[in-house]
Amino acid sequence: MEVIFMITLQVISVVFGLFMLYWIRVHFRRKHFSIYEYSGWMTIWLLFVYLAIFPQTVQGIIETMHISRVFDLLVIIALMIIVFLSMQNRIAIRRLEKKIEVLVRDRAIQHTKKEHEK
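-> structure tokens emitted (118 positions)
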């Protein structure tokens, strides 16, 4: 029973990680991320997928930290949700920054044209 639970958790984690990789790629192509942000997030999510597939690579750390309770699992899931929401917020802020920049630029051009017409 425990093995089935662990495999299910691994599959869910891998699917979530792959979704996040896809999501980051889509938003990078839409210019919502700089190359540095894109590289950072891709590294984080590739590492996440790798650790989901090969959890034994950090077995020593897990044993040291005693991650084995349901509460720990809930905390991990909560962190996944928080990261997802944080990235959504970051993308929304980036879009707003770009819209404000365009708005300010257009108004400055209009203001300059009016000054030159006088």
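The mean pLDDT is 86.
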